[in-house]
Amino acid sequence: MITDQTRRRGPLALGGRLRRLSERIDEDARRIYGEFGVAFEQRWWGVMEQLVDQGPSSVSELARALGISQPSVSQTRRSMEAAGLIEARDDPRDARSRRIDLSPQGRALYARLEPVWAAMDRVAVELDAEAADVITTLDRLDAALARSSLYERVRRAIDGAGEPTGPGDGTGG
What we know:
- This protein is mostly helical and 173 residues long.
- The protein has a domain at 13-107: Orthogonal Bundle (Arc Repressor Mutant, subunit A), CATH 1.10.10.
- It contains eight helices and two strands, in the order αααααββααα.
- It has helices at 4-9, 14-35, 44-54, 59-66, 70-82, 104-130, 134-147, 150-160; strands at 86-91, 94-102.
């Protein structure tokens, strides 16, 4: 439920609202996985899906394919490795690089969770319809931020409004 603070702040609370939705989705997914006796973190899904689709990949390839930062993929890789779901091997083409692939345990878990993910996909389609095509709206928001980041937009708004521009501008900020 939307809190009065969130409602009062409107668009300014966008990041917080997205975070809250993400937490709610992750918590419900964790409950579903728990009912299947699986300790699975929702953030692993993209890496796992990419490795099934594309095979062994480097951290940078995964980051590029998933549209997230390399440090985020590295953190996910470490947690998946600790859970025994992936294995890292030296890249035969570049000794400085490592290739990540699903372990046999990871492949078995993927197969076990496919029916759960199919159900989640059906529910996501229902939620999208109920929420007036929110996925398309999120796609448009993602594209808008790719054209010009929030940082760039705020800097333009501050610079255009004649507001202080940051540290060293005489405001003590």
